[in-house]
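Hi, does anyone understand the following?
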Amino acid sequence: MPIVRPVFKLLATAAIAMGAAGALAQAADYPNKTVKIIVPFAAGGPADNYARFIAQRLSTELKQPFVVDDKPGGGSIIGTDIVAKSPADGYTLLMMSNTHTVNETLIPNKPFRLMDDFVGIAPVNYSDLMLVVHPSVPARTLPELVALAKAQPGKLNYASSGPGTPYHMAGELFKHLAGINVTHVPYKGSSGARTDVVGGQVQMMFDAVTTMSQMAKEGKVRALATSGTTRNSITPDLPTVAEAGVPKYEATVWLGLMAPKGTPPEIVNKLNAEIRRIVDLPDVKSTWARQGAVPMSMTVAEYDRYLRADIAKWAPLVKASGAKVD
């Protein structure tokens, strides 16, 4: 009997060593087939566009195809649940946004919990939002829009890409802080919302500067303000919402990648290192700057803390704004 315990200890140590070696070998060999990035939002929006950008760069660097698969619906729930139920092997990833951190409070009865069923890989970038109205709206400044909304409570509509999305929460936060009553019109994606604002079916929306700024320049919509704490570099003549008369207002859209919980840490760390290297490249920074996007670079641990902090940040705001899933 005295000999058995050291033997078991040796076997256990050997098993741990073999497991570690196997994990390292798996990471070294990763990827050895196509990797799918599921975007739980409609094509044409920031998540889709930047997922394709990152996918192309990862394909080049890691010598295997990274393909984007759009699975919109349910305010990101449908596509996200597909990833949650996928094998935790690094071959199915999620392009997520702050929609997901908002939904932890807004939609408590989801089939998944973000921090229980996923592991963060890396953030990608963030951008300001732009408040725009259709040219037919008789408001040329943000104070005029607030006055119009107060004079006609409930008659103005704002579009969003769905419940819990940054566009939805930006609108609800605007309503809450400005003390106005405008009606939320949710769409299945930002493209449909954008199309109907440009067409005049809906009067206004908050949209990413990266996608809406060109339409504003072309006169298809009238831009009134941006949503950051300082003026956006690509629209320096446009005031922020806070600057234009709604104090303490701030809202952005940020993007990042996650994987199913249980994905080997070696694979998560490998992807994190590659994505951080990509977003730190000078040509990527300059390209995104022209689009109004700012790269984000964090370690896996830093990103985990960021996700948890964002969930905590939005929880009281969701409750205070009275936002609900329509």
In short: The radius of gyration is 22 Å. The mean pLDDT is 91.
